[in-house]
Design a protein that fits this description.
41% of the residues lie in helices and 19% in strands. It is of the alpha/beta class. The protein has a domain of 137 residues: 3-Layer(aba) Sandwich (Rossmann fold). The protein binds guanosine-5'-monophosphate.
Length: 214
């Protein structure tokens, strides 16, 4: 039998929430984490927003009508839900509940409202990480795509980003994304440390009992 280490001991899964204003690199960090860490998977949200570009139903989001969304709210199918920029978004609970018990970790790309609700419902399972851009100038640069957007569109994006930034204090960890590789390294360190949190390591009691056997 393989000797258990703190990485292989039985443990409860965690809910790893990554929030940021757009322009702080959240999508890049999330994609990389999913690609490089085999033990975490995405929590796929339900939304009433229409698909954009090549977004696929079932992997990027579950795309539904407002009536379908409302029925899911009524039926108590969401762990949290919120209205963001005029559309409804929610986290379906069934898969996550079962997964956490099995030791699966989930990555959440949700806003501050959803983060607050998940924390209220499942505080001990939740790890909240917020990414910040390194400066106002850099944020503006990242939100200005190829000089084709009007000043009004850019001003609107900046206002939304700054509104999201104002919720930074509802998170456990805040990482400034100055360099994407460094930021990614810091995010993976947070995840590694949280996996070793004593309360999550449900296999510890039996393991330590064996270590201290007379
Ligand atoms: P987008 O429409 O650009 O994919 O997402 C818009 C915003 O909604 C982002 O801030 C994203 O984090 C947030 N969001 C996506 N899914 C959920 C969800 O299930 N719950 C909540 N509360 N926010 C979500």
């Amino acid at each position: 039998m393989a000797i258990p280490t703190s990485d292989t001991l039985q443990r409860r899964g965690l809910m790893f929430i990554l929030s940021s204003p757009s322009g702080a690199g959240k999508t890049t960090i999330a994609r990389r984490l999913l690609a490089e860490d085999g033990a975490i998977r995405m929590s796929v949200s339900v939304t009433t927003r229409p698909p954009r570009g090549d977004e696929a139903d079932g992997s990027d989001y579950h795309f539904v009508s407002q009536a379908q969304f409302d029925a899911m709210v009524e039926g108590g199918h969401f762990m949290e839900w919120a209205t963001v920029f005029g559309y409804s978004y929610g986290t379906p609970k069934a898969e996550i509940r079962a997964g956490l018990k099995e030791g699966d970790d989930f990555l959440f790309d949700i806003d501050w409202q959803g983060t607050q609700q998940l924390y209220q419902r499942a505080e001990t399972d939740v790890v909240r990480v917020f990414l910040l851009p390194p400066s106002l100038d850099e944020l503006r640069r990242r939100l200005t795509s190829r000089g084709t957007d009007s000043a009004a569109v850019i001003a609107d994006r900046m206002a939304r980003a700054q509104a999201e930034i104002s919720h930074w204090d509802g998170y456990d960890y805040v990482v400034v994304n100055d360099d994407i590789d460094e930021c990614f390294a810091k995010v993976t360190q947070i995840l590694a440390a949280e996996r070793m949190n004593r309360a999550r390591q449900t296999g510890l009691i039996a393991f330590v009992r064996e270590l201290t056997r007379g």
